[in-house]
Fold:
Amino acid sequence: MNKGRIVKGIAGFYYIETENTNIYECKAKGIFRKDNIKPLVGDVVGIDIIDEEKKLGNITEILPRKNLLIRPPVANVDQAVILFAIVKPNPNYNLLDRFLIMMRQQNLPVIICFNKQDIASEEEQKELYDAYEKCGYKVLFISVKEEKGLDELKELLKGKTTTLAGPSGVGKSSLLNKLVPDAQMQIGELSRKIERGKNTTRHSELFYVKELSKGGVHTFVIDTPGFTSLGMFDLTTDNLMNYYPEFEAFEPECRFGGCSHIAEPDCGVKRAVEEGKIAKVRYDNYKVLYEELKNMKPDYGKKTR
Ligand code: GDP
Ligand code: ZN
Structure:
């Protein structure tokens, strides 16, 4: 049996990269449908090669998963890197917080990476650093253009499988080009087979990072599609504050037990925001999400699961 990893799945076809870096187009036989398991990008699978020349095969088994994410649907990942630009475009804090909440709900560590350091001011960087470092995230500033901070990022990626996400325009393709300069080769052959007029940008794709894979170490990056649907599950006005860990230290100073830190008087969290101990961007965003959740139908979260 040959073993490999699913790099892409489109319309019932799965593309599997084996250890010798060949890519096989495979179908999953009915066994998975019966067990109600859908092969995912990142899955390690066993394949039967049907045609070595045409690189065709069948998936025969899915090896046990280390974990699986629902959003994006990928398996066996160690961490997420969320890429934003410091400026051009300015960060969409709402999107960033949604992403952070989503990953925390799925127990995945997140590295926040801010790109375009070369065109940002010190103050702009400090504001972002203070806001997100305070809530316990690893925060990196990079410039893909000037190749700054990339070594530190690479060090964090080494030996791991990382999902990479970010809104458009932040430099995600540029970063991927640096990490996987042979991506065109890895996917070139592939995409010729699968393009067939289909929209392939909605799909996640796994890349082997050769530069960071030496001496038994294997490094993968999964390029995940844009932020079109960043719905959150099981989030309520009551538990939203749990995703803002930097509030906790100030909650004992709230006059009311169960304070939502929105309209209540004498609120320790609001005071901390005024005193600059909690980042205003985070608190403002908390309020936006709170209002959004308040106006949702009560069963919204469960339905979208
Ligand atoms: P994507 O939409 O996230 O894939 O972004 P791209 O990689 O296509 O980059 C969007 C634009 O930002 C392009 O014009 C890039 O040249 C530019 N860009 C990417 N990285 C940097 C950077 O570090 N600094 C600056 N100044 N521009 C960058
Ligand atoms: Zn309060």
Q: What stands out?
A: Residues 115-116, 118-119, 143-145, 166, 168-174 surround guanosine-5'-diphosphate (ligand 1) (CB under 6 Å).
